[in-house]
Automatic annotation (TrEMBL):
TM regions (residue ranges): none
Family per record: Belongs to the SbcD family.
Listed Gene3D superfamilies: 3.60.21.10
Protein's name in the database: Nuclease SbcCD subunit D
UniProt entry keywords in alphabetical sequence: Exonuclease, Hydrolase, Nuclease
Pfam family, one: Metallophos
PANTHER family recorded: COMPONENT OF ATP-DEPENDENT DSDNA EXONUCLEASE (PTHR30337), NUCLEASE SBCCD SUBUNIT D (PTHR30337:SF0)
UniProt entry tagged with the keyword Hydrolase: yes
Annotated Calcineurin-like phosphoesterase domain residues: 1-164
GO MF annotations, alphabetized: exonuclease activity
Amino acid sequence: MRFLHTADWQLGMTRHFLAGDAQPRYSAARRDAVAGLGALAAEVGAEFVVVAGDVFEHNQLAPQVVSQSLEAMRGIGIPVYLLPGNHDPLDAASVYTSALFTAECPGNVTVLDRAGVHQVRPGLEIVAAPWRSKVPTTDLVADVLDGLSPGTATRILLAHGGVDELDPDPGKPSLIRLATLHDALDRGAVHYAALGDKHSRTRVGAGGRVWYSGSPEVTNFDDVEPDPGHVLVVDIDDTDPRRAVTVDSRRLGHWRFATLRRQVDNSRDIADLDLNLDLMSAKDRTVVRLALTGSLTVTDRAALDACLDKYARLFAWLGLWDRHTDLAVIPADGEFTDLGIGGFAAAAVEELVATAREGDTDSAADAQAALALLLRLADRGAA
């Protein structure tokens, strides 16, 4: 028996830094990842798809987002089982109970809106732990596994949330207790745990039966989310009393959110950064956050700004990560002596240079920016 395990589609997601046509293209890519499950299922012979929570970004969605999402699910062509998660819980405002969703939900899509055992077909069951609020006060997995005896059917646990052994705050009441989950697996109450909430593909614990699939399209930068963009292809041998499990993964995602940390102190460092950015492929589907540190002359800072301006036009987004960027600009001796200006203008430049050397003040930053602009207008900082 083979199925696809995916999660955290978060359809309707927006990223505040995407402007112009980048946000619509990113939204379309998230829907395309969902629609692409149909071709993958046909290729590998998957029987159905489970979505382990956070199908939607939240419950208050534009009607167009709901309709387009449901149409993408229809195109998958095989049964799709949706689990409400923390972003789209089954609360009073749930998208799953809205008139639009219920009217347009295709026949191959089932919302697992009840905690407990759901029969997929004879010999195959899903044990679901849906969220009913954004802040559960108990371990929903422990609740649904409590008293669940081994049966004759193959069982897949479908759940959402953090696992205690991976969370920095293991005392949170809603965390999935891995010991409880392993106990259920060891005694055969369930045979595979399909988890959502962590957006990177992650194997949990020993035995290879507990996995986060991650989001099929990237949602955060690679220092936070190192391995997104995957769907898991899961095989369970239902002819084996032990229900042997094999997990493979396929990449569906096409976007990349990259963080680059660089020391830039001179024109050579800027040229190296330029080369690194130039070599990055699929720039229109790539978001770049730069953490730059160093000390530059005004001429070099103008060259850096020109470099960043150029690539900002090519990438889906490129910009400085302010909290991790520390660039000191120190005018070099003689840097402004050959501009061909004199009189009042030359005196004004000298005053700006003196102010720019004052250090980390607002006035110094303004003077540095003014001098950099002057050099760029004089074509000394062109990339």
